[in-house]
Design a protein that fits this description.
It is built from 11 helices and 8 strands. The strands form 2 sheets. A 5-stranded parallel β-sheet has the order 5-6-7-4-8, sandwiched between helices. Strands 1-2-3 form a 3-stranded antiparallel β-sheet. Helix 9 crosses helix 10. The longest helix has 16 residues.
Length: about 280
């Protein structure tokens, strides 16, 4: 709030903001805080030492709104509620055709002992979400790579890290559609949003084991991974391919970034095929 010596009542403020201020926040302040507010409101006298007060409410979309008064200034913070965050994550899974993983959590995977339990699941989450380390998971299909990636993405979402998840072949199809329809702006925005996402999960990279990627695919992937690498933004990749196959498909520079020694590299080559066993 401004502190110039002009009665605050003569200024224009958002009506809803003032209603909450008068009816819900001020009554919870100290007597001294209320007295100073009245002096500011009617006489324009600057407020000092205003006792901190908070008020929280949830809007119709499930977002949590926090109103705070501190030293005469009002701050508003809007954050999605936990339920809203989960809904947002489920929507991402749906767009990636991975909605069947909507309820997969790290807790639901606790009985899975990948690499014979030598790599704690929370370690992978911590490395990716908090230490900003890249994670590459490789091995045969059906061994749980996508399930683990989705569970980690969900936890990162609840940490408000705003992860993005794409299924590589589906994302590439959208990029190609933008090129064919000459939607340069749409193509740029799509690529830019992925490249600059705080956390990125790329699922099923190179799933078809073709001999060589097209120039368009290789260039698109390198632009994403290289751009993120240069800005220290962590990327998680699941793939059925080995390092040698990745290098043959996309080139050595890309393979070096995905299999850098500072990354978390998880091999699923000796794991059970859970998808086959469940059939």
């Amino acid at each position: 709030m401004p502190t110039e010596e002009q009665p605050a009542k003569d200024r224009k403020y958002d009506a809803r903001m003032m209603k909450i201020l008068h009816e819900r926040i001020l009554p919870n302040c100290s007597e001294e805080g209320q007295r100073q507010f009245q002096k500011w409101w009617f006489e324009g006298e600057p407020i000092t030492g205003f006792i901190k007060a908070n008020f929280k409410e949830t809007d119709k979309d499930g977002n949590e709104l926090t109103w705070e008064i501190k030293d005469g200034y009002q701050y508003v913070k809007i954050e999605p509620s936990e339920d809203a965050l989960i809904d947002q994550w489920k929507n991402q899974l749906s767009l990636a055709d991975l909605y069947s993983f909507r309820d997969v959590t790290l807790d639901s995977l606790k009985d899975f002992k990948w690499q014979e339990g030598r790599v704690p699941l929370n370690y992978v989450l911590h490395s990716f979400s908090e230490k900003n380390r890249n994670v590459t998971m490789y091995g045969p299909p059906g061994t749980g790579k996508t399930a683990l990636a989705c569970a980690i993405g969900r936890e990162a979402k609840l940490q408000r890290r705003n992860p993005r998840l794409i299924r590589w072949h589906k994302f590439l199809s959208r990029m190609r559609t933008s090129v064919r329809s000459s939607e340069k702006e749409g193509q740029f925005n799509l690529l830019n949003n992925i490249t600059k996402a705080p956390l990125l999960i790329i699922d099923e990279l190179g799933m078809d084991r073709k001999m060589k990627a097209s120039d368009f695919e290789a260039e698109t992937l390198f632009e994403i991974v290289s751009g993120r690498h240069g800005n220290h933004l962590p990327t998680m990749v699941t793939t059925n391919l080995t390092r040698d196959q990745i290098e043959r498909l996309y080139g050595r520079s890309l393979a070096d970034r995905l299999y850098d020694t500072t990354n978390v590299i998880l091999s699923f080559e000796k794991e059970n095929n859970y998808r086959q066993n469940a059939a």
